[in-house]
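Hi V.,

Quick status before I head out on leave. The structure for the redesign project is tokenized and pasted below; the design run finished overnight.
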């Protein structure tokens, strides 16, 4: 193959495109992209995408209102479909899964793949939070089983892998589920032998992100998505793990012909780890507003510290609130914690990073450092009308581009 035509859905600021362009922008040729955020009037992410990839490079419309025939035929569909309903920022009991408002956007992907018919892309590459494997809370694994069955119906073999970027020498502890599907008769499926071999040694993820089998863990668990021959999707919706006693999907797996094979695996990487120190700017590049005033240090220490304190609910019920302590400041000799969307706030907060830089002063991370932690080019989100808080928000919603680059390298090796 001389080129792979790529469509990027839920594009954000273009993390998939950045990652694939680093492999070979002439081979991974993005022909269409879509980004729409229904919760805001100003479409900052689409603005940033267009700034980096050119005027007209992204369609800024609700994907549910875009007809499939408006989307060019393509060889590879990529996207990090919105994950708010699965997010660890929400308690598991409140996680509504694919029934949730943003979770239903899975069906936009399914609709496009199905309506493309024989012209559907041979490869699908998706990203979501790791909790998708357990969603929804009342019927764990059902949503992921539905996604697998949708792709099975359309003729795809599907691999998944939960990857923490820091486990593979990247500068951020960001744990996400990555999904690769490829049509059974496509070049990406060439050499497929058996599920165990594919998961541990010869599959796309096995080559890009090596793993080992933990002691006392079975090599594979077989998960039958549905016992039905027909109406499998309705059957999965109502019957899959109905007792809610199983944990059907582990960190690695493969689905072929409607049967899933799941394995608990451990990362295997000997590369030199990256750390916050490696991506820091010089003190001269840090605006004064990012330094923590001496008067606020005790508040930061309180939010970061361990707690066990009495509290009273509105109904008068009294209880003890407890939480463990966190590092203050964050060590610059380790990868960062996961960047979240509120990282750009100025006030003391448990989840925001505070480091001690070369001057000995405490400060928050600047936007360029957040971009580098996600392995974007420096100043990728720098644009008039996009303030520092919004730049941090965009990085909290982004992925680690280095993950996509390693997947892209393995795909190119197989397809070229």
């Amino acid at each position: 193959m001389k080129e792979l035509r790529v469509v990027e859905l839920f594009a954000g600021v273009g993390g998939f495109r950045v990652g694939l362009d680093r492999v070979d922008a002439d081979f991974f040729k993005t022909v269409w992209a879509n980004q729409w955020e229904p919760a805001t009037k100003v479409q900052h992410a689409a603005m940033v995408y267009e700034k980096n990839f050119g005027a007209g490079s992204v369609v800024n419309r609700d994907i549910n209102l875009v007809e499939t025939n408006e989307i060019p035929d393509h060889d590879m569909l990529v996207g990090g479909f919105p994950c708010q309903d699965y997010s660890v920022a929400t308690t598991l009991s409140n996680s509504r899964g694919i029934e949730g408002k943003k979770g239903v956007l899975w069906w936009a992907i399914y609709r496009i793949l199905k309506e493309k018919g024989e012209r559907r892309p041979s490869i699908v590459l998706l990203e979501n939070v790791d909790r998708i494997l357990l969603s929804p809370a009342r019927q764990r694994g059902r949503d992921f089983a539905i996604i697998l069955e949708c792709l099975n119906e359309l003729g795809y073999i599907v691999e998944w892998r939960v990857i923490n970027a820091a486990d593979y020498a990247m500068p951020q502890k960001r744990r996400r589920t990555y999904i690769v599907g490829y049509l059974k008769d496509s070049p990406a499926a060439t050499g497929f032998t058996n599920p165990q071999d594919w998961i541990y040694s010869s599959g796309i993820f096995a080559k890009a992100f090596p793993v080992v089998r933990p002691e006392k863990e079975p090599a594979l668990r077989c998960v039958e998505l549905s016992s039905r021959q027909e109406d499998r999707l309705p059957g999965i919706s109502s019957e899959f793990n109905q007792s809610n006693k199983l944990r059907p999907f582990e960190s690695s797996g493969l689905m072929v012909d409607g049967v899933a094979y799941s394995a608990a695996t451990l990362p295997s990487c000997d590369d030199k780890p990256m750390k916050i120190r490696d991506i820091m700017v010089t003190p001269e590049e840090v605006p004064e507003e990012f330094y923590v005033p001496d008067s606020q240090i005790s508040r930061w220490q309180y939010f970061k510290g361990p707690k066990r304190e009495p509290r009273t609910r509105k109904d008068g019920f009294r209880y003890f609130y407890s939480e463990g302590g966190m590092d203050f400041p964050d060590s610059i000799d380790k990868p960062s914690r996961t960047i979240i969307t509120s990282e750009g706030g100025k006030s003391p907060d448990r989840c925001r990073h505070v480091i001690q830089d070369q001057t000995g002063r405490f400060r928050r991370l600047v936007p360029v450092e957040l971009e580098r932690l996600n392995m974007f080019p420096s100043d990728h989100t720098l644009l008039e009308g996009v303030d520092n808080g919004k730049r941090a928000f965009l990085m909290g919603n982004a992925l680690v581009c280095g993950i996509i680059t390693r997947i892209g390298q393995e795909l190119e090796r197989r397809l070229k």
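Above is the designed sequence. Residues 276-364 form one domain.

G. will cover questions while I'm gone.

Best,
W.
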